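Note to self: keep these together.
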Amino acid sequence: MSALNKLPSVQDSVWRGVTANLSDQYQPGSIHIWHAASSCSDHIGVTDTFLDKKKHRTLFNIKCYNGKPIKNHSHYAKENELILPPGTCIRVISQSNPADNLHIIACQEVDLSPAEMNAIASSVAMPGHIPKNASIFYLFWLDPNVNKSQENVKTQEKLRKLFDGDFEAFEKEEQCVFSIRQKKTDKIMLVVSGQMGQQILPKIHCSTSLTSVKGIITHQNELIKEVEQEKTIQTRKTSKNDTAAPPVNTPISGYEKQKLLPLEEALKPVESIIEDLQKYVWTVKNNAKESSHDGLTHDESASIMLYTMDCGEASLYIQLNRALRGEQRSEIKSWLPYLKLFMTALRKLPSFQGVAWRVVPQNVKDQYKKGERGVWWNVSSMTTDPQVLEMFIQEPGPRSVFTVECKNGKDIGQHSYYSAENEVMLMPGFYYEVTSVFQPAHEMHLISLKEIDAPW
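Structure:
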């Protein structure tokens, strides 16, 4: 333990395998303490090599933040081994059964108080060069009542405009701590008050990303003024240290300059492309609602709902992504007014940080090599619940299952046409690194991606 304690703690998404079916013991929402040291790897293929493929096997995909990398001290350096120290607590997020004898359990490391640990101690279970991107300044607001008063909701709207999307509000301490730990190179100001501040500060005091912790228990207008002043100070510091990068043209460049229009007007340039578009617009406008919870207008909510609606070949998401993947810039110009409304809506939503899933009914493994980086310019719909995909995963024929470790996914569950699917959206420009490519079953490939900061 003395040796492990001297190693740096890292945040990573790692894998651990057991030759057994542990799905009954690891139900979503359950918490487990692993009292033994747990050997993991960030390469799923390494993990599965040690399992008997003729028997039931369980693969754990663990989002950890106190892992100890032992690559430089291991006899098998190529395995990228990481140790989870004894006493690691994990919460099960989801589970799936993508093949007859394969079970995948997604979980994340959590902090528990001594009382909480004692309460569950009886449930022990076995367990190319990229330039450095400039830092971003975030504002986090932690308050159990942050969404429960009209005044707080209005204040959120003002802060969200001030920070242009780099603002998140949390009701739960655990979610806030997790988000702070994800921001390695960014600047953060945390607004918190009272007893909750006393609880959270010991857990985040060593975070290098935290530049300022403000205890503001006063009027809302004073809160906004104080935050604005701090943002100005941090912006000046950043401008002195960073050299402005030249603008980068992307497939969606120019949408920001578009005027924000109602949904019907934003879609006029593409009416000829989508049959019965007016009918679909009428449907979502009658189902979508203005949201005081996250600040979306009626039209912004409807723009997301329309994207998620499945209308066969006439589906908006099919036509939009076809244009985004196209080689001709002219194909996307007609979509810019809609993208302005759609992207404005997505940026208002809280960011999802965790593992999301997606299945593609074809073998695309040759397009993804471990260690390579790439970008998805299309809009990508994912789910946080792999059980939603099981009916597609278990269909015969080639299929590729993506597990994506997100930092900035957008939880659209409240605005999706299919709200029960736990849907998360990856916005155009999703930049990733391939962490592993693995074939766990016949005609099925599991491709793991990790979201990283884009170089533009």
